[in-house]
Amino acid sequence: MFVDEIDIFVKGGDGGAGCISFRREKFVPRGGPDGGDGGDGGSVFLEADHALTTLLDFHYQRHYQAERGQHGEGSNRSGASGDDLVLRVPVGTVVTDRDSGELLGDLTAGGQRVLAIRGARGGRGNARFASSTNQAPRRADLGRPGPGRWLHLELKLLADVGVVGFPNAGKSTLVSRLSAAKPKIADYPFTTLTPTLGIVRADADRSFVIADLPGLIPGAADGKGLGHQFLRHTERTRLLVHLLDPDPNTGRDLLDDLDVINAELAAYSPTLASRPQIVAVNKADLLEGDGAASIRAGVERVRARCAQSGQPFVIISAATGRGLPDLVHAIAARLDATGWLRVAS
Asked: Rounded to whole angstroms, how far apart are CA atoms 302 and 311?
């Protein structure tokens, strides 16, 4: 199960209590106070881990508490501090305070940490209260209870390229042909229920990460269909591949499809409206034959729109592989121009 949004409760460790104790040794009368301080409670941290791809673990356990501090002891022995609790989350997780909405951290690199809640301070032992006028204090502080808060965790995939389009446009097939990813492929809408990441080699030395996102429909930004649950994953992409389906059985116009999906992206986030795009018309085999004149006319209208707006335009067939090298070259050129093409490992 893919979980990319969840709330959890974290609590810092309680502080240990200070000790009331007096030094007692033979031939040492009135040895004075020697009660030690209580230890501090442990803190809770969130750490990004490349090995994780979902927040599923937090679905089964929602409450987390760091270790409490130990109580102080006599002979000025302070209690041990509680161990910190480190919760591992996928790279790309955004951490906010659920109640206030305060952004606590955006974990975009492996090993990066954010402090979720700090542990409580331990109490002072009676040795801390000794003075010239109070040489035998019988007072010590209790350890403070650890603070707690609800956190909202939201995963936004770290992909260089996101593939968007209507359901059944061939997005999963495209990603499976370009990379080693194995998304579910079937001939019915909404086959893709969760985003899938794949690594594509642009050449021998460079690569990029591509994401297959669930299909969008009109009203997705307002909660319709499945795509609205995953629009957040387009926010981190550097480039979008807008895949169009020329199949006449859909009853839709290609140019309208282009405008509808762009409108949904803009409605969800204004920054997505200006995100660089490569427009790709899939199922190139449908453009062949005498009966495909109307389909070719629709494709030419899209080509003209792209030429007018300066967007790259390619015709491909994800099923047969036709035009895929041209698409990879166009993606690599766009990423290379912005310095985001990765060194292949």
From this structure: 10
Confidence tier at 190 by pLDDT (50, 70, 90): very low
In this predicted structure, the answer to whether residue 228 has a pLDDT above a threshold of 90 is: no
Q: What is the CA radius of gyration of the chain?
A: 30
Q: Name the token pair of 135.
A: 């040489």
How confident is residue 223, by pLDDT bands cut at 50, 70 and 90? low
281/299 Cα distance (integer angstroms): 7
- 8 A C-beta contact, residue 160 and residue 207: no
Q: What angle do CA 176, 196, 209 make, to 5 degrees?
A: 75
Q: What is the DSSP letter of 33?
A: B
% of the chain beyond a pLDDT of 70 = 87
Closest by Cα among 71, 80, 81, 77 to 127: 77
Closest Cα partner for 63 from 14, 145, 8? 8
Q: How far apart are CA 305 and CA 123, in angstroms?
A: 70
State the sign of the Cα–Cα–Cα–Cα dihedral 90, 94, 95, 98. Answer: negative
What's the pLDDT at 117?
97
Give the whole-angstrom CA distance, residue 257 versus residue 278: 14
